Amino acid sequence: MTRYEYRVLQIRESMIGGKLSADKLEKLLNEEARQGWQLKAITSTEVKGRVGPGGVEGLLVTFERPAG
Questions:
Q1: Suppose 60 and one of 5, 34, 43, 55 were both cysteines; which one would form an S-S bond, judging by CB atoms 3.0 to 4.6 Å apart?
Q2: pLDDT(38) > 90
Q3: Range of weakest confidence among 19-23, 30-34, 40-44
Q4: Host domain of residue 50
Q5: Angle at 49 between CA 59 and CA 29, to 5 degrees
Q6: C-alpha–C-alpha distance, residues 64 and 6, integer Å
Q7: Cα–Cα distance between 25 and 50 in angstroms, integer?
Q8: How far is it, in rounded angstroms, from Cα 23 to Cα 19?
Q9: How many other CB atoms sit within 10 Å of the CB of residue 17?
Q10: Looking only at Cα atoms, what is the longest distance across the chain?
Q11: Contacts of 65 (CB under 8 A, 6+ apart)
């Protein structure tokens, strides 16, 4: 039986330089793929900002790879 490990990245606009552009997201996905991670899911979410009570638009990006 294959065992898996998971990695979840919380990405907000300011972490990848402004608006969530397709080019910047593609670069991030390719960097993770080079480390053996396979995209499992992308979920849109509100991410708490550094200052103030509000949040900003963000993503939860989940990756999977065989453990070991």
A1: 43
A2: yes
A3: 19-23
A4: 4-66
A5: 25
A6: 5
A7: 21
A8: 11
A9: 9
A10: 47
A11: 4, 5, 7, 36, 37, 38
One-letter amino acid for residue 31 of the chain = E
Cβ-based burial of 46 (10 A; exposed 0-12, middle 13-18, buried ≥19): exposed
Structural domain count of the chain: 1
Q: CA-to-CA distance for 36 and 38, rounded, in angstroms?
A: 7
Using the Cα atoms of residue 9, residue 10, residue 16 and residue 19 in order, give the sign of their dihedral: positive
Structure tokens at 19: 């608006």
Helix/strand/coil for 31: helix
Question: Contact 57/12 with Cβ under 8 angstroms?
Answer: yes
Is the pTM higher than 0.85?
A: no
